[in-house]
Amino acid sequence: MAQKKKLNIKKAIKKPGALTASAKRAGALKKDGTIKKTWISKMAKKGGKIGQRARFAQTLAKLRKRKG
Q: What is the value of pTM for the model shown?
């Protein structure tokens, strides 16, 4: 039986902190330093790198939710 391949999330994140920096410039950070989910969902509908990063953040949130 074949072994299940583990995901390497650290390699998948090309520029750590880039989405947070964009959110900070847009004023979408909460007081605890996390990004507002409404802002992420709005950005996920856009194209380009910001949209790609927002969609990836949504995917990572789903992985965290499923794991824990």
A: 0.82
Residues ≥6 apart with Cβ < 8 Å to 58: 40, 41, 44
Angle between helices 18-26 and 37-44 (to 10 degrees): 110
Q: By 3-state DSSP, what share of the chain in percent is helix, strand and coil, each rounded to 5?
A: 60, 5, 35
Closest alpha carbon to 21 in 61, 63, 57: 57
Q: Which two tokens stand for residue 60?
A: 């990572």
- Rounded Cα distance between 15 and 40, Å, is 17
The CA-atom distances, in angstroms, between 38 and each of 2, 48, 49, 64 are 40, 18, 18, 18
- Reported as a single tens digit per residue, the pLDDT across 27-45 is 999 999 999 999 999 999 9
Do residues 58 and 41 make contact, with C-beta atoms less than 8 angstroms apart? Answer: yes
